[in-house]
Amino acid sequence: MVRLIPKDEAFQQIFVQDGENLLEAARALSSMFHEFDRLDERVGTIQALEHAGDEIGNEIAARLERSFITPFDREDIHELTMRLDDVVDGIQEAAETVVIYGIDEPTDEARRLAGIVAAQGEQLLEALRKLDALDTVGMHLKAIHDLENEADGLSRAAIGRLFRDGGDPLTVIKLRDLYMALEETVDAAEDAAEVIERIAAKHQ
Question: Domain range spanning residue 60?
Fold first, then answer.
C-alpha cells in the first residue's frame, strides 16, 4: 500500500474537509433541481458552501506556506485545491443561473446532470479519504471519468434537442447556458480527479 502521508495527517484531513464541503454543495444542487422550491434559500445555502470552500482553500494555502516538508509536490497541492474550488464554483454558477435566468423548471436532462455532479462528488470524497493509500483510489477516479463521459453525451444530446425542437428562442438560450454550466462543473470534477491520478502516478 502506497503511503502518501506517513507522519503528518493535516493535509489529508483538510482535503477531506474540502471534499465533504464539495459533496454537500453538489447534493444541495441536485436537491434544488429535483425539489425546485425555496430557490433563493437553496441558492443561499450553496453560496454559503462556496464561501466555506474558499476558506478551506485559504487554510490549505496557509498550511502550505508554513510547511517545510509537504506530503506531495507543492504545485500538486495547489492545483488540487484549485480544481476542487472550480467544482464548487461551477455548482454555484449552475444554481444561480436558474434564478438569474428565471428558469421555470429544470428539464429531466438538467436534473440528471446535477445528479452526475453529486455522484462525482461522492467519488471525489472517497478518493480524498484515501490520499494516504493512493494505490486504492483507481476505482473512484475511473467512476469520475465514466460519469464525465455520460454527462458529455447527455449534454450534447440535450443541447441538440433544444435547437431541433425549436420553441421560444429565449428559453432555448437559457437552457443551453444551464446545460453548459453543468457540463463545465462535471469537467471540473474530472480535472480534480486527474490531479489525484497524477499524484498517484508520482508515488507508485
Answer: 10-202
Inside any domain, residue 4: no
What are 149's three cell numbers? 463521459
pLDDT at 108 over 50: yes
Does residue 135 lie within any of the structural domains? Answer: yes
User: Number of folded domains in the chain?
Assistant: 1
Q: What is the DSSP letter of 101?
A: T
Residue 123 has pLDDT above 70, yes or no: yes
> In the prediction, which pLDDT does 39 show?
97
> In the chain, what is the straight-line distance between the N-terminal and C-terminal CA atoms, in Å?
9
Cα–Cα dist 37/202, whole Å? 46
Distances (CA, A) of 14 to 47, 77, 180: 20, 11, 30
Among 137-141, 179-183, 198-202, which is the least confidently predicted range? Answer: 198-202
Give the phi and the psi of residue 68 in degrees, each rounded to 5.
Answer: -80, -40
